[in-house]
Structure formats: structure tokens, C-alpha cells
Specification:
The complex is a heterotrimer of chains A (328), B (291) and C (380).
Chain A lengths: L2 H16 L6 H26 L7 H17 L4 H25 L2 H21 L1 H4 L5 E2 L5 E2 L2 E2 L3 H24 L1 H11 L1 H6 L4 H27 L1 E2 L6 H14 L6 H15 L4 H18 L7 H28 L1
Antiparallel strand pairs in A: 1-4, 2-3
Chain B lengths: L1 H31 L6 H17 L4 H29 L4 H21 L15 E4 L2 E4 H23 L1 H11 L1 H6 L4 H27 L6 H15 L4 H21 L5 H15 L14
Antiparallel strand pairs in B: 1-2
Chain C lengths: L2 H19 L3 E8 L6 H20 L7 E8 L4 H13 L4 E3 L4 H13 L4 E3 L14 E3 L4 H15 L4 E7 L2 H17 L2 E8 L7 H9 L4 E5 L2 H13 L5 E5 L5 H7 L7 E4 L8 H14 L5 H20 L4 H8 L3 E2 L11 E3 L5 E2 L2 E7 L2 E8 L6
Helix pairs in contact in C: 2-11, 3-4, 5-6, 8-9, 11-12
Classes of the chains: A mainly alpha (328), B mainly alpha (291), C alpha/beta (380).
């Protein structure tokens, strides 16, 4: 990682550690809410940004994670048991969702995942005996870690922050490994990748599965954060927003989810009094972004660099041409 | 039996609307490779535009004509020039994302700028009821179905029988060859966008009396239209109508005979079956993947 | 000037006024559904609250202090409602009005309960006042006390033996259906069809068909505003000539506007209606129309009377102590003669439930026509 990135990262971490104790409940809640979505979109960034798949059903895994933990907590089973169960469940279902990806391409895949999301949402809403239906599950408890109760807003925030940093580090490691290179090969040219011996079916399925696990963890954290879950935050519109968050931040950029979630979750909550206008501006901003910055906000430094390099190259060319001309 | 027929016929009327929206969507995809995620909102906006014109005293048909003109300019020309043209060369996803953003912007623009509530919308058809063989139909049901069919067949006829229409088809099948043959490709693509805008206006006129004009009326409509388009065949115009009718009828039948709470899953199930077993759609042709 | 601008300016003005008078105001948070499925209900409730606040401030405020209201949109989303309630708690408000939607209030009231802030709501789900929360107060009947009145009407006046129930698949609809089924059983009516419908459902052919197939003597429709309008239209279209009965929402103003002629003949038990033959109610109707240029629905009345209930309780307690005011509210009887803002005599019980007169209303020629006035359950 470049020096400036490291400095930036440390600064952000310091802010995230030091500021919240000075905020009131609502502020801490906002930050925790934001970090939960950062985790979820990190997973989506892997599936969509690094592996180039089209997933418009991410919120379904978010929901599966949340409901698993909530239902188990209500049944008296600890959060620490519910969390791995949620992760395992999401992994398996994520693998299953990967199968259509092997058969259909791009836009059809997008619609298939959209359909999957709707199906899961319908089950969440209709199967009242399991999920509480539209009444949802209220009073979801917060876990305790090594005897420390995480019930307080600040304590839970630090827990979420810790999870986010941990998961981020794991993802970073994954992406720097050969697996990460295989994912990007899958994105850029799957047929060529296969000819190089990369087992694209396996990687396709894995990209969905790992992305799903991240969303599942985020969902579990979400359940204990909001302490009330119902089907609405897990509908297709939420998937679409998550996809937009990845795109706005910059698909394939590691810190894209941080920025994208801030724009998609933090800002709207903060500007809630102007909610409808905010979404209008957000929608318009997405359109403009696609027109001018199709690679997301984090592509700005790259673009500036590219432009500078192009300018230097053409300056060098005209200097060389002048020399040649003078010499001739 | 009459119950079944009742559900079938009601479903056909609803399905015809899905078909209209799906048709415009399919045409855009065929002719220019544009996936328009804001198709539902393209129906919502003309509905509000018509209400707007009506509030200034214009009668319904006059509002409709005015709205058509505005729609061709805004949803046709401006959409093409502003969004579709610059993005199409970057592949499929940028235009998908841009139209998602456009849908959000349009929806919330109306919600914040006009009203978050539902508004009644005048019907083109008088409030009459028919009873045929025990099945009750409104004039609106029949009229909607007839008009939708007429529009679809008129569009088909235009595409197949006129020179312009055939030129548009040529552009859809092979843009480079079409250019070589001297066809004004950008203009043909513009015509496609214009036809989509007009079909959306027609859909708005037919469907809003039932749906009621509300800023989010486009969402369910758009989603069903996408599924209908894919079920029928993403690269076939008649398929769009067939897909719409299938979705409309099966939803009604499922709601009555299987489970009302899983009504929305029906379109999904049909869709999943179609893309797994016949991904080009029921009436579509196979598409090769480029290496 | 659209709603957003008005709200923003109103909020800005109120905030400015707040700055000028810092501690000398009573802060209330108005958390309502201003968009989403509950937009109609929430907007009306908010307008009712703001009208009452305006009147009270013009008359000198409560205990000499003006009321300062901040409005927020819950978007008909319980998660959002909870966040907004947390914010209201941070802002140290004296009372919270809303949300109206049963699903949202069930969630947000945990926050206000924790902070001991009186929370008024127009939500009708029975479960709201069954949670042991001493800080929740209704501004409308609970489904548990309204449904027996409906059942009595169906059995007694309509003399119907069987009824088909159409309800919306959300907590409001399901809660109502459960309360109704219990009440119907007690009144000796058989429920022959249990028809679930979706929020936002457009095509009503299947549900109405099911009702027809059940051969019930009457149909009980319990859905939200837009869906009620569509249901009424489909019932008329398919030739349903038997009774159509509802509770509050079915004969609301918005429903009448959206359903047009199809609404005529629908009957509902209504806790509050602007067309009640009550001079104070008619005055309210006129004042609301003058302020907002449209006719209020029952949610507007709920918002308006809620603020006056709070005022009456504060004045009786004599000081701005949230815990004491909440205690006063339990068991408080407010007479409309002494506090005209509550429009009808009302009594609040230990759970936060209300007892008041109510009405049987039929839609005639596009207007609500009060057929019967039903007395309150207890003595007022």
C-alpha cells in the first residue's frame, strides 16, 4: 500500500475510534449503521467489483443473516452461535445462487438475482410462524463478549468497528492472494481465464458465496443494532441501493464501499429532513457519475494521474518531434 | 368455470399493460442495446404530466397529445442524447446503473416536488359494465386489452411493412452493416426511443385510472415489465405482449387457486423456469456469446 | 408552495423562535409517515397536530409557554421511526406525536418509554397498549374495542349470519382481522372467508371473487386507504349487492375521493369523522379546511385532539414534568365543555386506551353520513 494510503487509513481509523464518545445516541447509531453497510458492501464489492458478477440480490443475504440471528436469539441461542450459523447458511445459499450465474449472463443474471431476492423477501413476509411476518421480530438482544455487555450504544459501536476492521483485513488478504488475481481475471475475460487453467466455475460460485457471507455477518450485526427486524430493509430496493453504493464508491476499489456506504446510508440519514430531495439528488448524481466517472468516485485519482501522464507523454512527443524536426 | 374466465379476462387486461411497457423495453434493447431500468417511471411521469395539463383545464385527450409531444422530446430525445448515447459504448452495466439512478431521481423528484399521495386519474372509458356468460367486464377492461393489442400490432406492422421500420430492424440486427448500407443509424435509434416514449404514454393513459397516480406506481409496473419481456423473449416484439399476458393471467389464477400471499412469486417462478430452460424467451431467438 | 418548502420554512421559523426563547418553550417531536404506504394517514395527523399547536400558541401557550414542534418523516418504515425516536430522545423533547402506523409505533415506543417521554399515537393495533408501557397514549380506539361495535352492528342491525373478511397483509390489517374474528365469534357471526390481500394491491378480481364464492351475507373490508378504494370499485364491478362494512379506513375522505361512485353504500364504524353532528367537530372541519384547503380525515382529528389532551394533562398537573404528566393522563377524564380542543368527551385509562363516543357512518353521494352515534363503553 502506498504511503499516502496508509496515512489516510490511519487518520480515518483514528477518527472512528476517537469521535463517537463525544456524540449523542443518534450519532453513534448512525456510525454503527454506516459500518454495518460497509461490511455488507465489501462483500458485494468482491462479487461485483472484483469478480465482475451481476448481483442485485445482496439484501437477501443481509436479511438471512439478520433473521437467523434474531430467530435464534429469541429461541435462547447465543449470538455467538447464531453468527457462525448465519455465515454458514449464507455461504451455502450463496453457492446455490452462483449456479444460475454459470448458465446465464450479465443482464439475465441480474434479473435472476433480483428474482431470488424477491422470493426470499416473500418468504420472510409470509411465513409468520418463523419470521413474524410483517410484525417482524422485536427486542432483539445484543450479545456480550467475554462477560462485557455490548448492550450500550457505544460499546456495540466499537464491536461493529472491530468486526469491520477484521473483515476488511481478511478481504485485503484474500485479494492480494492468488485467489484475488483469479477473481479479477474472471471479471476481465472469463474465457481467456479458463484457457489459462483457472477453474472459472469454482471462482464464480465462490465470489457469490464469500460476498454472501459478508452480507450475512452484516445482517447479524444489523439485527442487534436496530433491535427490531422486519422484511422491508431486505427487499429488492435495498439490493439496488447496495449495488449503487458499490458503483458510486468505485467497483474494484478496496475502499469503495466505505465511500459508497457513506453516500448511500450516512448522508441520507443525516439529511433525513430532506429525504425525498436527497434521493432525487442521489439518483441524479448516479446518472451524472455514470456519464463522467463510470468507475466510481475513487477512480478520480487514477483519472487525474492518467490525464497528467497523457499530458506529459504528448509534451514529450512534441519535444521529440521538435528535436527531430530541428535535426532534419 | 365462470370464475376461471373472470380471473382470466381480468388478468388479460392487466397483462396487456405489462405487455405495453415490456414492448417499449424490448424495442429499446433490440435497437440500441439499452436496458432501461426506469421503464416504470417512464409510465409514471406521463401520468403526472397528463394530470398537470388537466389541472390547467385541458380535456383528457388534449392532455394526452400534449404529453406525447413532451414525452418524445424528454423521454425520447433527451434520454437518448443525454444518457444512452454517451454510455452505450461502455458496455451494458453503465447504462443499467444510470437508468436505476434515473428511476430513483424521477420517483423522488415527483414525490418531493409534487405529492407523495395517490391521485385519481380520469378514465378514457365510460364506467360501464358488461356481463357476458356470467363474467363481468368493465368497458375499461375490454378497451384496455383492445387498445394494447392494436398498439402492439401497429408497432409490428410499422416495423415490418414500412421502409423506416425495416431500416430500424436492420439497425437492431447489425448496426455496422446498416451503416454501410447508408441507413441513418442515429436517426433510426432515435425513432426507437420515440416509439418507446409514445408506448409509455399510452400505457399511462390506460393503466393509471386503476393504479392511481402515485410517485411509486412505476416500481411494480417496471419490474413486471422486465420479467414479461424476458419471459416472452428479449429480442422479439410479440414476445413482450405474450410475456405480459402470461404474467397477468397467471398472477390472478395463482392468487385465487394457490396462495394470495405468494402472488408476486408467480412471475418469478415462470421467469426462473424460462431463463433456466429457454433463456432466449418463449418466442425469442438464441444469442451467441462473443469471446 | 409545496409541502417540503412549507415544512422547511415552518421548521426554520420554529427553530428561530426556539433560539429566541431557549428554555421557555415546550418541545414536541412530530414523527409521522409523510411518504410511503402511510403518507395519507401521517400527513393528515401531522397537519392536525400543527393546527392545534398554532391555535394553542396564538392563545398564549400552555402554562405560559409556547409549543415548538419539529416534524420528521418516518417513511412508513419502522427502522427509520426508531432512529427518529432516538433523535427525539436526544433532543430532550417533552412529548412525541406519532408515528401513526401501528408497525412503526410498536418499535419506536421502546425508545420513548426508556426515556420516559409521553408518546401519543393514532395507531389502532391492539398490541400497542398491551406492552406494559406507561408512556403510550392513544388518540383513537384500539381495534380491540372497535371491532366488537362493528360485530354488533353486523349481527344486530344488518342481521347478517355470515361474513367474508378481506384484510391487508400487514400488522394493521392482521391485527384488525384477529380482533374482528374474536368479536364476530362473540356476536354469533360466522366468518366464512379469510381473504388476505397485499399492501399496494392493484388487481382485486381474485379477492372479490373469493368473497362472492363464499356466499357470505356481508363483506368486512379492512385495508389501507388506496386499497380500500380499489376494493370498493371491484366489488361494485363484480356486482356485489350485499353489505360492505368496514372500520374507520373504509369510509375515509381519501377513499371516497379515489373510489368515486363505488364508495356509495359502504358502511363503517368510525371513531372520528369530520361529519359528526357535533358543533365542535364542524368547527374543526372548517378551521382545518381554511388552513390546509382540503377536508381532514380521521387522522387529522387524532393529531389535533392529541395535542389538546396533552395540554389538558399539563394544565392539570401544573408543571412541566413528563413523569407526572404521564401519571395524570392515566385515568384522566377530559370534557369537551372545559377543553373544546378535544372535541368530544374522552377518558384515558390505565393502559393508555381511550373511551369515547363513536359513529356508524354510511357513504351517501360522496359524503360521510352519520347514521348512528354509539355511546362510550364506560361512564365519562
Amino acid at each position: 500500500m502506498k504511503k499516502i494510503h496508509l496515512v489516510g487509513l490511519v487518520a480515518v481509523l483514528a477518527l472512528l475510534l476517537a469521535v463517537p464518545p463525544f456524540l449523542k445516541n443518534y450519532g453513534i447509531y448512525l456510525f454503527s449503521y454506516w459500518l454495518v453497510f460497509v461490511i455488507a458492501t465489501m462483500g458485494l464489492n468482491l462479487t461485483v467489483g472484483y469478480a465482475g458478477q451481476k448481483s442485485l440480490g445482496h439484501a437477501a443475504f443481509f436479511g438471512i443473516g439478520a433473521y437467523t440471528v434474531a430467530i435464534l436469539l429469541k429461541a435462547g441461542i447465543s449470538f455467538w452461535l447464531g453468527l457462525p450459523l448465519a455465515m454458514a447458511g449464507c455461504f451455502v445459499i450463496g453457492l446455490a445462487l452462483g449456479f444460475p450465474a454459470l448458465r446465464v449472463q450479465t443482464i439475465y443474471l441480474a434479473f435472476a438475482t433480483l428474482g431470488f431476492n424477491t422470493a426470499v423477501w416473500l418468504v420472510m413476509r409470509n411465513e409468520e410462524w418463523l419470521t413474524g411476518g410483517t410484525f417482524g421480530i422485536n427486542n432483539v438482544a445484543r450479545p456480550s463478549l467475554f462477560g462485557f455487555s455490548l448492550d450500550g450504544n457505544l460499546a456495540y459501536y466499537y464491536f461493529v468497528l472491530g468486526m469491520a476492521v477484521l473483515l476488511g483485513a481478511l478481504l485485503w488478504g484474500l485479494l492480494r492472494s492468488p485467489w484475488g488475481k483469479a477473481f479479477t481475471a474472471l471479471r476481465d475475460n472469463p474465457i481467456r481465464a479458463e484457457s489459462l487453467g483457472i477453474h472459472i466455475q469454482a471462482y464464480t460460485l465462490l465470489s457469490f458465496a464469500i460476498g454472501a457471507v459478508y452480507a450475512g455477518i452484516a445482517g447479524a450485526l444489523f439485527a442487534s443494532l436496530v433491535q427490531f427486524i422486519e422484511p422491508a430493509p431486505f427487499a429488492v430496493s435495498a439490493s439496488i441501493m447496495m449495488y449503487l453504493m458499490v458503483v458510486v464508491g468505485g467497483p474494484g476499489y478496496f475502499f469503495g464501499p466505505l465511500l459508497g456506504s457513506a453516500v448511500g446510508v450516512l448522508l441520507p440519514e443525516w439529511l433525513r429532513f430532506a429525504q425525498a430531495w436527497y434521493l432525487f439528488v442521489f439518483g441524479a448524481a448516479v446518472v451524472l457519475l455514470m456519464l463522467w466517472l463510470p468507475d466510481g468516485l475513487l477512480s478520480i485519482p487514477d483519472r487525474l494521474r492518467a490525464r497528467r501522464q497523457a499530458r506529459e507523454a504528448s509534451a514529450a512527443r512534441s519535444a521529440a518531434a521538435a528535436k527531430l524536426g530541428a535535426g532534419a | 368455470m365462470t370464475d376461471f374466465l373472470q380471473l382470466f379476462v381480468s388478468g388479460m387486461a392487466t397483462g396487456a399493460i405489462y405487455g405495453l411497457a415490456a414492448l417499449g423495453f424490448t424495442l429499446l434493447w433490440q435497437a440500441s442495446g439499452t436496458i432501461n431500468f426506469a421503464q416504470g417511471e417512464f409510465v409514471m411521469l406521463p401520468a403526472f404530466a397528463m394530470l398537470g395539463f388537466a389541472s390547467f383545464g385541458a380535456p383528457l385527450l388534449a392532455s394526452f397529445v400534449l404529453t406525447c409531444v413532451v414525452a418524445v422530446v424528454v423521454l425520447g430525445w433527451a434520454f437518448k442524447r443525454g444518457i444512452a448515447d454517451p454510455l452505450l459504448r461502455h458496455g451494458l452495466m453503465p447504462i443499467v446503473v444510470a437508468t436505476i439512478g434515473l428511476a430513483i431521481a424521477m420517483r423522488n423528484g415527483v414525490r418531493a416536488g409534487y405529492s407523495a399521495e395517490a391521485h385519481p386519474f380520469p378514465s378514457l372509458f365510460a364506467d360501464k359494465l358488461f356481463n357476458i356468460a356470467g363474467v363481468t367486464l368493465t368497458l375499461a377492461d375490454v378497451g384496455t386489452l383492445v387498445m394494447a393489442l392494436l398498439l402492439v400490432f401497429a408497432t409490428q406492422a410499422f416495423l415490418q411493412k414500412t421502409v423506416t421500420g425495416r431500416a430500424m430492424q436492420a439497425v437492431a440486427q447489425n448496426t455496422d452493416s446498416a451503416t454501410v448500407l447508408g441507413i441513418d443509424v442515429p436517426r433510426m435509434i432515435f425513432y426507437t426511443f420515440a416509439i418507446n416514449a409514445l408506448l409509455a404514454c399510452a400505457a399511462a393513459l390506460l393503466v393509471t385510472p386503476t393504479y392511481l397516480a402515485k410517485f411509486d406506481m412505476g416500481e411494480p409496473l417496471g419490474t413486471k415489465a422486465f420479467f414479461a419481456a424476458i419471459i416472452g423473449g428479449f429480442n422479439n416484439s410479440r414476445g413482450a405482449l405474450l410475456g405480459g399476458l402470461i404474467v397477468g393471467v397467471s398472477e390472478n389464477l395463482a392468487a385465487a387457486y394457490i396462495s394470495p400471499t405468494y402472488k408476486d412469486a408467480v412471475a418469478l417462478v415462470v421467469f426462473m423456469l424460462v431463463i433456466l430452460f429457454k433463456p432466449q424467451g418463449l418466442l425469442g431467438k438464441k444469442v451467441e456469446r462473443k469471446v | 408552495m409545496n409541502r417540503f418548502h412549507r415544512t422547511l420554512i415552518a421548521t426554520a421559523l420554529l427553530a428561530a423562535a426556539g433560539f429566541a426563547q431557549a428554555q421557555a418553550t415546550i418541545k414536541i417531536a412530530v414523527l409521522q409517515e409523510l411518504s410511503g404506504a402511510g403518507a395519507t394517514a401521517g400527513t393528515n395527523a401531522k397537519n392536525g397536530v400543527l393546527l392545534a399547536v398554532k391555535e394553542i400558541n396564538a392563545a398564549g401557550g400552555v402554562l405560559g409557554k409556547k409549543i415548538e414542534a419539529t416534524v420528521s418523516d418516518t417513511q412508513s418504515n419502522p427502522g427509520v421511526a426508531k432512529g427518529l425516536a432516538t433523535k427525539a430522545v436526544d433532543d430532550d423533547v417533552f412529548a412525541v406525536f406519532g408515528p401513526t402506523f401501528s408497525g412503526s409505533i410498536m418499535v419506536s415506543m421502546a425508545e420513548t418509554k426508556r426515556a420516559q417521554i409521553p408518546n401519543f399515537t393514532g395507531g389502532e393495533a391492539a398490541a400497542i397498549t398491551q406492552q406494559g408501557n406507561p408512556y403510550i397514549f392513544r388518540t383513537s380506539f384500539t381495534q380491540a374495542s372497535a371491532m366488537p361495535k362493528v360485530a354488533r352492528y353486523i349481527a344486530g342491525t344488518l342481521k347478517a349470519k355470515t361474513v367474508a373478511v378481506m384484510f391487508v397483509n400487514n400488522d394493521f390489517g392482521k391485527g384488525g382481522r384477529d380482533s374482528f374474528n374474536k368479536a364476530a365469534e362473540a356476536a354469533g357471526i360466522k366468518v366464512v372467508a379469510d381473504i388476505s390481500t397485499e399492501s399496494g394491491q392493484v388487481d382485486w378480481a381474485a379477492p372479490v371473487l373469493k368473497a362472492k364464492q363464499s356466499n357470505a351475507d356481508a363483506v368486512f373490508v379492512y385495508t389501507n386507504e388506496e386499497e380500500s378504494a380499489r376494493a370498493l370499485r371491484e366489488l361494485r364491478k363484480q356486482g356485489w349487492a350485499k353489505a360492505v362494512v368496514g372500520e374507520t379506513t373504509l369510509t375515509g375522505q381519501k377513499v371516497i375521493e379515489l373510489a368515486g361512485d363505488a364508495a356509495n353504500g359502504a358502511v363503517a364504524h368510525v371513531g372520528l369523522t369530520v361529519d359528526a353532528p357535533n358543533p365542535l367537530m364542524l368547527k374543526f372541519k372548517a378551521k382545518f379546511f381554511q388552513e390546509y384547503k382540503y377536508i381532514s380525515d380521521h387522522n387529522g382529528i387524532k393529531g389535533y385532539t392529541g395535542v389538546y389532551m396533552l395540554k389538558a394533562a399539563i394544565e392539570k398537573t401544573g408543571k412541566l414534568d413528563r413523569v407526572a404528566v404521564a401519571k395524570t393522563l392515566h385515568g384522566l377524564k377530559i370534557s369537551a365543555a372545559k377543553e373544546p380542543g378535544v372535541i368530544m368527551d374522552v377518558a384515558i385509562d390505565a393502559n393508555g386506551d381511550l373511551d369515547r363516543e363513536s359513529f356508524i357512518v354510511e357513504v351517501k353521494n360522496g359524503k360521510q353520513d352519520v347514521k348512528e352515534t354509539l355511546p362510550p363503553l364506560g361512564k365519562l
